[in-house]
Task: structure prediction
Amino acid sequence: MAFNAVKEKYRSKVGEVTLGATKEQGGTRGYTITVGGEGALPFLHFEGEIPNRPVVALEVWDHAPADWNACFDSYFGDVYNDAAAWAKKCVEEYGADLIVLRLKGADPDINDASPEDCAKVVKDVLAAVECPLVVLGCGKEEKDNQVLPVVAEETSGENLLIGVAEQENYKSLTAACMVHKHNIIAQSPIDINICKQLNILITEMNLPDDRIVIDPTIAALGYGLEYGYSIMERARNGALQGDKMLGLPMIGNVGFEVWRTKEANASVEDFPAWGEQEPRGILWEATTATALLQAGMDIVVMRHPKAASLIKQNIEELMVANEV
Amino acid sequence: MFIIGERINGMFKDIAQGIREEDPTAIHYWAKKQEEGGARYLDINTGPAAKDQVKVMQWLVEKTQEASDLPLALDSTNYDAIEAGLELCKRPAMINSVPAEWPKMERVFTMAAKHNSAVIGLAMNEQGIPKDADTRVALAMELVAAADSYGIPMEDLYIDPLVLPCNVGQDHGPEVMNTLRQVKMLADPSPRTVVGLSNISQGTKSRELINRTFATMGIANGLDAAVADACDRELIEAIATARVIMNLDIYCDSYVDVYIKQQK
Result:
């Protein structure tokens, strides 16, 4: 009996989203990055085309983070107060594909930076690196609604990925992304129904679906990773079966979630049985990301350079075609 | 479940008149309207009055494709007409239909394989429509075996268990539901299933209510497609809802609109 590989036939594939714009395209980026386009489940090259590999982004803040673990000091300590230098370091030394700039300083309880100041930081980072940029607000709705439209306007043409839009708060950001030709992150609270509905609401405002990236909201290993995992799987299955409102690339804030856990941060003195803190934290972040790559994540947002480098290696190995 | 729009049929006055006067206005209108309504295929039937079935089928196929990109279901017992229509189809079509009879199966499955088209197989033969589910399933199995021997993938074979009006053939209802369930177990991957939905309500009062109730029950029993009225909004809503309840589509608040958009 000959061996016949079972190959699933899918009706559809994930849409592609391109981030960044070069000079010819009206921006200033050295290159663009395209994510999505998968025609099969994650890394099943023998069933369908996986045209774009997942990308690894490193997180940069516009404000020296007060609560990051001390193990980050030796990587970023000298650039904590200079987002542009920080971003440059992430790309040149640590090999980030993308920069995720979090405008934490806009938070009214931190720096309460003005929209203009925030836009300036974004522009400084754009001048320092040539990779495409993801820009996130501070997380406080009211302030982000003031800041992000100004950022979108001041960086018109750069084709940024801006976030986040949520079900109760998507209109002003969607409008800004439409007018100034940026992409948007549609975030839902670990809920596939809201995820799908939000994408519909955004496309109903006439933002094309090739400019939306889904943030299904993920949690770290040990803190509900499996909920995000199964939702991403379900979205990807829906996408392949023809559900266009779920057929969009996915992004996840892995670093942000992992470095909130006790296991990533606690010292060996406090928990001797867990072993050394830094390698533990690196592996906590890398393991979380590895799992989510198997669920279909396209943009992995990380924090620790060593974890990021492990994931880049993992992606490289998974992108080797497994034809049967 | 998806809908094969039933409206481009020479049995309807406006279509018959269009055919007679070679005026495609009504054909264009219904092609677009059914597509907007949520049809995934458009059924094309020349009607019994047309003298030259081959020519009329070709004309209908051409005129329909001018107005819509949906794939077509060529509906005729005249296989020369179907074959002539298949030659003109821009997308893989569906043949409506073939009973479990030789040499009809030979003729139809040969042209289906050649044109990469789907086939509706009727669970009946020379002896007419069976009374019970067991006989229907046995005939379905003959269709499955025949289709397989001509290299037709099971996903392209649509078994029609044959629906009778619920006022005169009331005892057929449960037999049809039973057949739908069992057909799904005849092969792996399983053949698909289809019904001529509007038959269930022939000659009854409140036809739309009976149609959409049957549709939701059919979906719960494994019904994949129906030749039906794609412009019946309440039918579409019932189908979209049944699909959500059966976990065939992922729920969202706009699930009816999403269902309609996804058919294209």
